[in-house]
C-alpha cells in the first residue's frame, strides 16, 4: 500500500479470501476491503513501528471472519510503497487438510524442531500431539510400550505387549475424549486390531472405520463411547521406531467432515513419525538415566537422622526439576558419644550418576570421620584429601559445611569448605549468617589448613544448613536469595515448628523449571539437663587417678548407679593414667548420662587416641610414643603420632550400657 492505503500488490490468498474478483483489489483502499484498517495504517506510518488490530473481514460467500491485521511500515525500495499489511484468518474447517504442502510445512518445519529440544518425555508427548492436532488430524494419541518407558517392566505380558497412552489431542472440546482415552492409561490391544498389527509389523496402518468398524473396536475394547467418537472416521497409525525396535505409534483420526487420509498423508505422517522417533528415543534414554541417578541418590541419602535427646533435627530434600539432572546434595545428622551431634550439609559439583556416586563416597567418609570424633576442620581436611585422590582420574569437587554441637556445654564448632554460611537464629534476636573462615571447596586444594570457629549458643537457638539450590537460580541473584532466606527466619522463627520453617524456606522454588536440587538441615539446639552430667578438672599427677575414682563413685551413687561403679572407675583409671603418662597438663573428667553412661577424659595433647584390638602384635603397640594400656573390654588405648595441629583437645571415650 501507499501512504493513503491504496493497495499496490497482493498475493493469491488475499484475493481468494477478501474479494470475489481478485483484480478488484488492485487500486482499492485497505479500509474498503477491511473496515477499520485505516487507523492502524496511520498509526504505523506515524510511529514508524508495526501496529496490530483484531478486525472483522467479510468473506466472498458473505460470512464474517475474525482477522488479525498487522501493518508494517516499509522504507527503501520503491518510493510509492509505504506499508505492508498481513491479514491472518482461520482456515475453514473443510479445507484444513486439503493442501499437502501446508500440512508438510506445519508438521515438519514450523513446530517440530522447537519441540525436539525438550528431554522430558511427558512434555515431548504433549508437544507432539499439539502439532498433529489440528495440523494433521482431528484427534490423536501417542502410545508407547511400557517396556521402553519403565526398565522394570517386562517386554510382554501374557495377553500381549503393554502400552501407555502418553498424550491425547482433539479439536472439538468434547470431554468424552478424555473420559474414553485417559492419559497415562496402560492397556493391551486385542489381537487382530489395527493397533496390534501396527505394533507387530512396524508399518503404517490405514483404516476407514465407518459405522461397523467403530462398533467393532468399541466391542473389542469394551468401551461403548468409542463407537460414537470414531464413527465414520479415517484412522492412520504411524509406528515410532528406533534402533531398539518399535517404541510405539501415533493414532491419528479424521472425522467425516474432512478429507480422509490418503497415500500423500501416509508419506507425510511417516516422515513426521521418523523425526519424532529420534526425539522420543533421546527423551526415553534421558528419563531412564535420570531415574537411575535419582534412585541411586535417594538410596545413598540417610533414611534417619540421629541426635541427642534435647536436640531437635529436621531435614528436607528436593530433587532438581525435570529439566535439570540429578545432583549430589546431601545432609547428615550423626549422634556422637557424650551428647554431641555432627550436622553436615554438602554439595558435589555437577549432576548425574557420577555426582550421586561421589556423594555416596563422601557420606561414607563423613560417617567414619564423625565416629573418630575428629574436629570439623580436621574432618574436612581429610575429606579434601579423599577428593583429591578421587580426582586423580577425573576431577571431583564438592562444598561442605560441618558443625559439631556439644549438648553438655552448649558449644558449637563450625568449619566450611567453599560452602554457603550457616544461618544462626537465636531466640528473641535477629538471625545472622555465621562468618566462618573461608576455605576452598573439597578437591581444589589450597594453601594453609581449614580453620574452624567455636562459639556458645543459648538453648532454643536454630542452626540452618542448606545448599545453593535454595537461594540461587537463573532469575535471582544469590544475595537476593540469602536475604529472602534470612527474612523467612525472622523474629519469632526460633519458636515455630521446624516443619513449618522448612516449608516456608521452600516457598516459591517449585515453579522453577531449572531448579537445582536442594538439601537443608535445621536443628533446634538445647543442652541436656544439669543433673545428667558432671565434670571435674584434675592435675596431671598420679594422685589424680585416686581422686577420679572417688569422684566417679560419689556421682554414680547420687544417680543410683552404684552397680556400675567398679567398671566405670576401672575405665577412668585407665584413661586418666594414659593422659598423665603421655599428655601432661590439666586433665578433664566428664560423666554424661545420654543414651547410656559415657565417661570422657580430656587432655591438652595434639595427638589422638587410637584403639588397638587384642589380637594385634606387640609391635603395633610400640608405634606410638608410649606403651598402650589395656582397657576392661580387651582393647588397648594408645596415642597416635602427632597430627600437626597447633592446639586441640583429645578425648578417650568409652560407653557402658545402662543408665
TrEMBL record:
EC number: 3.1.3.16
Enzyme's top EC category: hydrolase
Domain (PPM-type phosphatase) ranges: 308-525
SUPFAM superfamilies: GAF domain-like (SSF55781), PP2C-like (SSF81606)
CDD domains named among the record's database cross-references: HATPase_RsbW-like (cd16936)
Superkingdom per UniProt: Bacteria
Protein function: Primarily acts as an independent SigF regulator that is sensitive to the osmosensory signal, mediating the cross talk of PknD with the SigF regulon. Possesses both phosphatase and kinase activities. The kinase domain functions as a classic anti-sigma factor-like kinase to phosphorylate the anti-anti-sigma factor domain at the canonical regulatory site, and the phosphatase domain antagonizes this activity.
Catalytic activity: O-phospho-L-seryl-[protein] + H2O = L-seryl-[protein] + phosphate
Keywords for this protein: ATP-binding, Hydrolase, Kinase, Magnesium, Manganese, Metal-binding, Nucleotide-binding, Phosphoprotein, Protein phosphatase, Transferase
Record's keyword annotation contains Nucleotide-binding: yes
Biased composition (Low complexity): 624-641
Official protein name in the record: protein-serine/threonine phosphatase
Amino acid at each position: 500500500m501507499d501512504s493513503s492505503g491504496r493497495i499496490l500488490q497482493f498475493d493469491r490468498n488475499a484475493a481468494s479470501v477478501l474479494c470475489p474478483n481478485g483484480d478488484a483489489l488492485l487500486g482499492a483502499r485497505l479500509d474498503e476491503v477491511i473496515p477499520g484498517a485505516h487507523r492502524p495504517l496511520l498509526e504505523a506510518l506515524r510511529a514508524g513501528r508495526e501496529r496490530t488490530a483484531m478486525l472483522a473481514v467479510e468473506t466472498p460467500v458473505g460470512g464474517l471472519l475474525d482477522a488479525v491485521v498487522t501493518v508494517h511500515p516499509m522504507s527503501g525500495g520503491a518510493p510509492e510503497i509505504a506499508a505492508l499489511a498481513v491479514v491472518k484468518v482461520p482456515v475453514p474447517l473443510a479445507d484444513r487438510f486439503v493442501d499437502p504442502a501446508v500440512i508438510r510445512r506445519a508438521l515438519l518445519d514450523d513446530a517440530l524442531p522447537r519441540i525436539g529440544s525438550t528431554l522430558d518425555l511427558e512434555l515431548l508427548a504433549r508437544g507432539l500431539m499439539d502439532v498433529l492436532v489440528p495440523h494433521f488430524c482431528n484427534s490423536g494419541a501417542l502410545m508407547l510400550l511400557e517396556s521402553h518407558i519403565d526398565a522394570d517392566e517386562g517386554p510382554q505380558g501374557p495377553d500381549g505387549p503393554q502400552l501407555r497412552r502418553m498424550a491425547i489431542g482433539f479439536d472439538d472440546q468434547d470431554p468424552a475424549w478424555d473420559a474414553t482415552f485417559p492419559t497415562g492409561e496402560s492397556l493391551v490391544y486385542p489381537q487382530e486390531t489395527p493397533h496390534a498389527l501396527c505394533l507387530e509389523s512396524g508399518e503404517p496402518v490405514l483404516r476407514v472405520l465407518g459405522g461397523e468398524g467403530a462398533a467393532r473396536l468399541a466391542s473389542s475394547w469394551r468401551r461403548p463411547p468409542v463407537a460414537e467418537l470414531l464413527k465414520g472416521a479415517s484412522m492412520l497409525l504411524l509406528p515410532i521406531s528406533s534402533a531398539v525396535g518399535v517404541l510405539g505409534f501415533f493414532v491419528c483420526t479424521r472425522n467425516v467432515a474432512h478429507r480422509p487420509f490418503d497415500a500423500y498423508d501416509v508419506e507425510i505422517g511417516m516422515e513426521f513419525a521418523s523425526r519424532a522417533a529420534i526425539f522420543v528415543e533421546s527423551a526415553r534414554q534421558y528419563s531412564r538415566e535420570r531415574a537411575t541417578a535419582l534412585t541411586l541418590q535417594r538410596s545413598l541419602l540417610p533414611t534417619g537422622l540421629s541426635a541427642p535427646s534435647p536436640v531437635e533435627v529436621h531435614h528436607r530434600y528436593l530433587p532438581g526439576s525435570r529439566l535439570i539432572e540429578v545432583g549430589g546434595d546431601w545432609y547428615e545428622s550423626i549422634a556422637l558419644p557424650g551428647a554431641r551431634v555432627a550436622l553436615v550439609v554438602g554439595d558435589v559439583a555437577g549432576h548425574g550418576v557420577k555426582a550421586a556416586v561421589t556423594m555416596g563416597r563422601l557420606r561414607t567418609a563423613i560417617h567414619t570421620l564423625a565416629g573418630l570424633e575428629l574436629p570439623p576442620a580436621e574432618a574436612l581436611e581429610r575429606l579434601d584429601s579423599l577428593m583429591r585422590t578421587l580426582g586423580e582420574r577425573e576431577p571431583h569437587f564438592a562444598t561442605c559445611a560441618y558443625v559439631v554441637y556439644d549438648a553438655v556445654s552448649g558449644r558449637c564448632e563450625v568449619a566450611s569448605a567453599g560452602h554457603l554460611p550457616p544461618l544462626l537464629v537465636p531466640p528473641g534476636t535477629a538471625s545472622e549468617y555465621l562468618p566462618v573462615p573461608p576455605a576452598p571447596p573439597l578437591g581444589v586444594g589450597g594453601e594453609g589448613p581449614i580453620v574452624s570457629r567455636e562459639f556458645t549458643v543459648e538453648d532454643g537457638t536454630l542452626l540452618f544448613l542448606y545448599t545453593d539450590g535454595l537461594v540461587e537460580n537463573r532469575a535471582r541473584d544469590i544475595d537476593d536469595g540469602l536475604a529472602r532466606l534470612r527474612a523467612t527466619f525472622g523474629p519469632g522463627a526460633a519458636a515455630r515448628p521446624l516443619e513449618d520453617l522448612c516449608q516456608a524456606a521452600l516457598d516459591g522454588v517449585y515453579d522453577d523449571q531449572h531448579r537445582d536440587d536442594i538439601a537443608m538441615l535445621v536443628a533446634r539446639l538445647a543442652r541436656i539437663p544439669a543433673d545428667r552430667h558432671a565434670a571435674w578438672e584434675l592435675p596431671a599427677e598420679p594422685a589424680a587417678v585416686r581422686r577420679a575414682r572417688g569422684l566417679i563413685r560419689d556421682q554414680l551413687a547420687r544417680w543410683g548407679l552404684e552397680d556400675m561403679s567398679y567398671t566405670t572407675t576401672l575405665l577412668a583409671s585407665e584413661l586418666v593414667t594414659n593422659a598423665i603418662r603421655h599428655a601432661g597438663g590439666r586433665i578433664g573428667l566428664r560423666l554424661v548420662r545420654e543414651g547410656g553412661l559415657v565417661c570422657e577424659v580430656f587432655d591438652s595433647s595434639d595427638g589422638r587416641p587410637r584403639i588397638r584390638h587384642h589380637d594385634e602384635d606387640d609391635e603395633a603397640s610400640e608405634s606410638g610414643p608410649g606403651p598402650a594400656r589395656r582397657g576392661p573390654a580387651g582393647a588397648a588405648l594408645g596415642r597416635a603420632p602427632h597430627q600437626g595441629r597447633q592446639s586441640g583437645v583429645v578425648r578417650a571415650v568409652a560407653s557402658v550400657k545402662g543408665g
